[in-house]
Each structure stands twice: as C-alpha cells, then as structure tokens.
C-alpha cells in the first residue's frame, strides 16, 4: 500500500509541475501581448459572420469559393446524412467504405486528370501518411523549407534520407538532387501555394529539375484547389504543369466546401499501395458521408461552372491593388491570400482587434508561425465578397493603419 501511495504522489507532483509550466507559459504569452484568442461564430460562415451579437465582414476564412454554406452543398450533405447515416464507425479496409466514397474518389481523379485517388480525414493525414509507404532508408526525400507543418511531420515519420532545401532556391534544390542521385528513389514535395505568403511556388522550374534527376514531383495544392487556374484546378493548371506533377495532395476543407477531408491523387499503383500501407488511412475512420457528399457536390459545381474561381481571382486582384495604393506592404502575387506585413507580432494582433472593432474580422500572425520581424495580418478574399465589402475592408484598414503608424 505504501508503494501505491508513493506512486500516486509522484504522479501528482509530475502533473502539478506540468500544469505550472503551462500556466507560466500562458502568462508570458499574455504579457508579450501575443496570446491568441478564439472568436466564436454564432452561425455559418460567409462573406459576413455573426460574432458577439453583431455582423462583421469575414476576411479570415479559407472559404474561397463561398461554398461552405452554399444551398446545393448543404442539401447534398443533408440528403447523405439521411441516406448513408452519420458515419461508419470503422476504417476503410474493414467496413468503412461506401459507394459515396468511391464516387468522390473517381470525381477527384476526373477533376485532376489522374488515375486514382485515396481519401483521408484531412490533408494533414494525407501528407503525414504519404512518404513512409513509398520511401525507405535507401531513398531520398526532398522538401522545401517553408512547406506546411503537415509535410514537415510526414517527413519526420519517413526513414528516407532527408534534404531540406531553402525556400524556392533552385540552385540549392539542384545541388540536393545531385547529392541524392545515387539513392534508389527520390521524391520532392512542395506547397503549390505557401499559405502565409499567398505565393505560388516555381512549379515549372521544380518540374524541370525533377525530370532532369528522375525524381517524383509532389504538390500539396490545398490553398489552390478550386482557386487558381482557368478551371480552378490549382497552381499546376495556373502554371501549365498539370501533366508534369507525379502526385497531388489537397484538401476538401478549404475551397471545396470548407468542411473536412483530404486526398492524394495520382497513378493507380501508387494510390493502391497507399491504401495498403498508409497508416493515416488504415487507422482512421472513413470520411463522414455528409462531408463526402458535400465535397462531391462542390466538385460537380466547379466542373459545371468555373466562374466562382474567376470571381475570387478578380476579387483578389481588386483588393491587392487597392491595398497597395493605400500604402500597405503587400507581397506581389495573385492569390486571394493577401498578407499585410506589419513587422511586430504584438502590433499585428492589436491591429486585428482594432479592425474587428470596426467590423472587419481578420487574423494576425507572428513568430513562430512566420519569421521574426515579418508579422502580418493575413487577409483571405472570397468569391462571395462584393465590391462594397472590399471597399469597406480597405477603408477600415486605412483607418487602423494610420492609428498604428503602418501607413
């Protein structure tokens, strides 16, 4: 009994120590004015949202096409809930695959012009479960230094030799590819659009190098699927390299209904092997039927009519042009992610609060999400924003920018 009592005391002390550590860290974040707080929406997302009892302009959502609360998608999800149920309570290979999942995979493959697709609960899961089934110690895995955290974690889980190349540095990538050339197989992955910058990666040059060194070329197009290109097929369509990308990973949780889910799409043998060995598929429940049905409807809508992609591209150009003319520091680009660089993290968060008070909901980001000195407000434009919405946002930014001596 004495031993058990002592064991309980030890656990209690460990727990107290951990709790005190967290309490101190939280206090430090609040003291530095870098503590992030959630704002609770009181309804669905859209061009405007209701928060704290009032309507504000939404400028911080991945709902690029305005599909998140579109009547067709809501109806498709509702019908699926009644027909297919809430979920299967199981992973795909046991008893968790429905005809709805196969139909969505076939539709995504048609959209991308690929042979097959595998669904995941998120693109995080798609990236985390991609590398280990395909590469071993004898292989090389190359990755851009600014790739999304899900890619970074997936790389860490793989035993292949790693090459992390400086962001967008083609000379460094070629040097790494030369070093990796003696290895059995090589794979290079990049974001199609880097989410903190709204920057499209140099996919043509990446494709040239991967072809030169016989390396599989993978693009995570989460922030470009449905958004860029003439028909909304993403960064590779925008840059004319759709047929030169070996594999795409992407999300169903941004432009394509803004709910959940992700996928990998490419050659059938690769997808088949992922179904057999990708741990984030093998040990995760199947995508909920309502989410699958809503996403399926989103792809159908975009293939029927790509005008929402055209509208969001036009709105992004309008907003970027007006913000630059007002004197804000905006990196060059065409994506609806429009970063407003302010430098200091505390200032970015304070400006976010000030903008919210003026009826514009936009998030501030600082270190360690972005490098020190590059804190920003990340605006995200949607196809459903009107000219009046964009005017209102720019006017609010100008007022707050003058208040904080940014313009």
What does the model show?
There is one protein chain. The chain is built from 15 helices and 15 strands. The protein has helices spanning 2-31, 71-84, 92-96, 99-112, 123-128, 149-156, 170-180, 203-212, 235-238, 268-277, 279-282, 289-304, 307-325, 345-357, 387-403, and strands spanning 48-51, 54-58, 116-120, 140-144, 161-165, 186-191, 193-194, 199-200, 216-220, 247-251, 262-266, 337-343, 360-361, 363-365, 375-380. It is globular. The model has no long low-confidence stretch (mean pLDDT 94).
Overall form: globular
Task: Count the DSSP helices.
Answer: 15
How many domains make up the 3D coordinates?
2
Helix content: 40-55%
Helix-strand string: HEEHHHEHEHEHEEEHEHEEHHHHEHEEEH
| CATH level-3 fold name of the largest domain | Aspartate Aminotransferase, domain 2
Strands of the biggest beta sheet: in what spatial order? Answer: 3-11-10-9-6-4-5
Mean pLDDT: 94
Class computed from helices, strands and strand pairing: alpha/beta
Under CATH at level 1, the class of the largest domain stands as Alpha Beta
Q: CATH architecture of the largest domain, please?
A: 3-Layer(aba) Sandwich
Strand content: 15-25%
Find the CATH superfamily of the largest domain: Type I PLP-dependent aspartate aminotransferase-like (Major domain)
Radius of gyration: 23 Å
Q: How many angstroms separate the termini?
A: 69 Å
